[in-house]
């Protein structure tokens, strides 16, 4: 009976062996991973630096009295626009009117004395020829004439001083601009050249914006302007635009006016000053703004999506590209600055390179891949799905 069981068992084992599933393929036999890539291209681009800055009045005048007296009245409305020469305050001028009248009388007296001395000197000039007077008497007459002339000159100067002081009793605006809050009221005693200003006037149209930029970037800007690569406003002045804190753009464009002739020792930066029209006084002193300052215009700039650029542990920017034989190649690149969701690449990528954007987590340097072109840097859904299934 046992001799019949052995063939049966062998047959059963062979059948079971035939039903076992086939072993999986080795890793080397797997299909190459699929990646989405874009072809690197060049385009014209203006390199723009966005710098923080604050607005500064074009001119500032602190109004102070130049004579002493009691303030009679204020002649302006706080916050209004004033013009140069406009009356702002009136000081009691009674004493200055009296001083002017006294100076006029003193001048008249000096002129009368001068006339007497002149006639005497002329008479002595004639008499000296006849010997009726001595030379000493003639010299004294001439001296009296000169002294009289000096007194007249001094009286005229005193009269002019009195007239100027009287004019100073009306305090006027030295510049055009927006006037601020008055620090005094009628009835206050003000003194000549006092430390505290009566009021401050700020000229806001045009207005300055003070910016801070690194010295190296400033040199790049100067070189670009010297080579004619940038649009200028006027003579050798780069055009500048402003952006408010809420992201809105200021409608008026300005021009770069001045750069500090010293570099900050701690930051290595310099101060730039730009001038902007401000016809509606929408820019006020002390506002924080961001200025967009062009640095250079490039005819063949390379811009790539930020997701296509990675970083090494040491911070070095890298890009994974598809080589001619469809293998992965790692490139070290120089990402100059972020432009929206893109990087401006200064070095490391060339026109025509196939930059991998999708499937980066499944590849490494040197492996073969199946590249699939993407449209505008966006991978089709099918590519992602196929990659997940593979």
From TrEMBL:
Residues 100-127 form a coiled coil. Residues 206-294 form the Multidrug resistance protein MdtA-like beta-barrel domain. Keywords: Coiled coil. Residues 59-201 form the Multidrug resistance protein MdtA-like barrel-sandwich hybrid domain. PROSITE patterns: PROKAR_LIPOPROTEIN. It holds the Pfam family BSH_RND. Residues 100-169 form the Multidrug resistance protein MdtA-like alpha-helical hairpin domain. It is a lipid-anchor. It comes from the Bacteria. It is found in: Cell inner membrane. Residues 301-362 form the Multidrug resistance protein MdtA-like C-terminal permuted SH3 domain. Belongs to the membrane fusion protein (MFP) (TC 8.A.1) family. This is Efflux RND transporter periplasmic adaptor subunit. It comes from Marinobacter xestospongiae.
